[in-house]
Amino acid sequence: MIDEIRALLTRHLPGREVRSITKLGEGLDNVAYEVDHEPITPGSPVALGSLIAGGSLIAGGSLIVRGSKEADPAARAEAIRREAELLAVVARLSPLPVPEPVFADMDAGFLAYVRLPGVPLISHPVAEPARLAAPLGGFLSSLHQAPVAEMEKLAPHDSFPLASWRDDAERDYRKIVPHVPTAARPLVEDFLGRTPPAEPPAGAFCHNDLGGEHLLVDVRASTITGVIDWTDAAITDPACDLALIYRDLGPEIFDLTLSHYGARFDDADRERATFYARCSLLEDLAYGLTTGASLYTHSALAHLTRTFR
Fold first, then answer.
1. DSSP state of 219
2. Is the pLDDT score of 237 beyond 70?
């Protein structure tokens, strides 16, 4: 894929020296690379593929170039187009930094954006996680209160019955049960044996994959420096976003985040958030074990007992 990225950079950023291309990692949907290139003078025209023309890039020497793993060309092109347009809207909504698109190549299935500072929370825990609660609460308030009628033009509706969530989680668990600590198995199996919560009453605009791998942080300052990967953004249950804070930062930070959350969130919402957190942890553990993505495995196992207790 590196040769393909070099060709893309030649086409979209002509005349700029590429110093290095380094693979950062990959998830279920995308593969990400960091590109160190010659700084671009502020105001220089940069074409955004066939989507937008005449954009500009701030001075700097580092881009993230992300390639879609979608095999269907039409679906891949639509996903890239939608995310590039979505990011422009999210930048106006979000009180936290989000990626700034530089070019979007729908045919090739790549999106490039200015690298945000910071490192992923999943692999770099902060010393004072409580300091993340207020910005996360404000960020989610802004997202979840965005007008649905406007956001659904850019983000699809994403809703699955909670019974389907539970069934998927049970299938994941059966695949990985030998790797689950013996002492934790009764907690997981008790959860899987319960009736799922009631369905949510309505949806809101959500990031929809707000795990620690998509939160960038300054470790020393214990601050959030960016929110990345908006591929899965959707109109869905806002408890899904809060759920991943519960899973990755724990119940205490979840409660602190809610104290800064300006939208309505009642006991039924809390029950669903806990439910989603547990299902998604089993999904991440299964993903890590079946693909060899050890970061997901280690994170899920580290948070297993507190998420299911």
1. T
2. yes
